[in-house]
Design goal:
The protein is α/β, with parallel strands linked by helices. The chain is built from 14 helices and twelve strands. β4, α6 and β5 form a beta-alpha-beta unit. The longest helix is centred in the C-terminal third of the chain and has 21 residues. It is globular.
Length: 385
């Protein structure tokens, strides 16, 4: 367990990982570039593409502290983190179980690439633990989950998945992007490897592309061994920007989570909204489980308008809330998963996961909720008038 886990989260976000070694003073600075290193002896791990420059190491310490793990590794994107982690533990002849609803990029990576590697895979029929157990084979090496899920905010019982995996000697991985370490730390429930699109809440300002993995020292070393060959490392300047963003992670996510709960309750009562998906609503099918696993319910929600309203016209009429390809910035944004995050899936695949063409994913920012409500009201009015 990471020795810094007894620190408060604001302290971790601000200070953990700043190197004290005289040789690496100033390593967090973007000006301390990899080409200027001087070493007394050759260390292949210091080669910048190998993920181990001083500012990368400092940032990894901070991420590991946030996730309560021994170590961490940062990547050039969330998908680099996902794909590298999976390939580190899967080889020809192995099998992986994945939950039914996943980020579209992860789903597409599995179905497009794993057959080429001779890796078998199964998707569960639901999020019930019996369906995970049903898919396990003698050659299953990994169970991969995502909770809350993208884009329907479904919740998986992490403790049950962990116990099942340990019973069969299987590694567990979670995409913890939507929750962030502020809202849940999956290691508390026995999950082995935590993966993030650090582009999202860890970055928080819609200005970087990054990924992260946090796990035991042994597991991170195994991931690093393949990562150095696949080359998904992060530039020094982006490392600095991500470290900068972590300083406000706790403040941002708490405010976004508070705002999202208010917005979900408002939308649930709005006569022009058909369905709202948010684990903080008592009407959510996994509300009790989410309450048991999460400190807050997160800043993400999704909803469907009544069928009489043109979804795309509604989004174009929004003025404060902007359509965006990504999520989790300090500004509120919306998008249609069918046209963006899950566009690589066929309509049949989206339908099987319950992702309707009219679904809108709403990333709630840090604005005043009164302003967000007013923007939705005027957009609805101008859409239906």
């Amino acid at each position: 367990m990471n020795k810094n886990t007894n620190l408060g989260i604001n302290t971790i976000c601000t200070h953990v990982g700043e190197l004290k070694d005289e040789q690496f003073k100033g390593a967090i600075s973007p000006l301390y570039m990899s080409t200027s290193y001087l070493f007394d002896s050759v260390d292949v791990k210091r080669y910048p593409r190998y993920f181990n420059t001083p500012n990368q190491e400092a940032l990894c310490k901070k991420i590991a502290a946030l996730e309560k793990t021994d170590d961490a590794l940062i990547f050039g994107s969330g998908m680099a983190a996902v794909s590298t982690s999976l390939l580190a533990f899967l080889k020809q002849g192995d099998h992986v179980v994945l939950q039914e609803t996943l980020y579209g990029g992860t789903y597409n990576f599995v179905v497009e690439e794993f057959d080429k590697f001779g890796i078998e895979y199964s998707f569960t029929k639901s999020l019930a633990i019996k369906d995970f157990e049903r898919e396990i084979k003698s050659n299953t090496r990994v169970i991969f989950i995502e909770t809350p899920s993208n884009p329907l905010l479904k919740i998986v019982d992490m403790n049950e998945v962990s116990l099942l995996a340990k019973k069969h000697g299987i590694i567990t991985m979670i995409d913890n992007t939507f929750a962030s370490p502020v809202n849940q730390t999956p290691i508390d429930f026995g999950i082995d490897i935590m993966i993030h699109s650090a582009t999202k809440y860890m970055g928080g300002h819609s200005d970087i592309l990054a990924g992260a993995v946090a796990a035991s020292e042994e597991h991170v070393k195994r991931i690093w061994n393949i990562a150095k060959n696949l080359g998904g490392s992060l530039s020094d300047f982006t490392v600095w920007m991500l470290e900068r963003s972590l300083k406000t992670l706790n403040l941002r996510v708490k405010r976004q989570s508070k705002n999202a709960l208010k917005m979900a309750k408002y939308l649930e009562k709005n006569k022009y909204i058909d369905t709202v998906y948010y684990p903080g609503l008592k009407s959510h099918e996994n509300y009790k489980l989410a309450k048991a696993q999460m400190k807050y319910f997160g800043g993400m929600l999704s909803f469907e308008l009544i069928k009489e309203i043109d979804t795309m016209k509604f989004q174009r009429n929004l003025q404060l809330i902007k359509p965006s390809m990504s999520l989790a910035g300090v500004e509120s944004t919306v998008l249609s998963p069918a046209q963006t995050s899950h566009a690589l899936l066929s309509k049949e695949e989206r339908d099987s996961q319950g992702i309707k063409d009219g679904l809108i994913r709403f990333s709630v920012g840090i604005e005043e909720t009164e302003d967000l409500i007013e923007d939705i009201e005027q957009a609805l009015y101008n859409t239906i008038k």
